[in-house]
Write a structure and sequence with these properties.
single chain; 2 helices; alpha+beta; about 55 residues; three-stranded antiparallel β-sheet
Amino acid sequence: MIKSKLKSKTLQKKLLRKKILIRDGSTFRGLDKNHIRIAVKSHKENVKLVKALEGI
């Protein structure tokens, strides 16, 4: 889990525009609207995610 400066729903929408899916962490016990869950399967996907996050 990662705590974001943005609300998880906001970050989720921004990344979805780049065809990247993340999970809103507020549905997990003890976490809030600023937590997200990210699962990356490959190096290529990781690079894509990092570039997308840098652009936000």
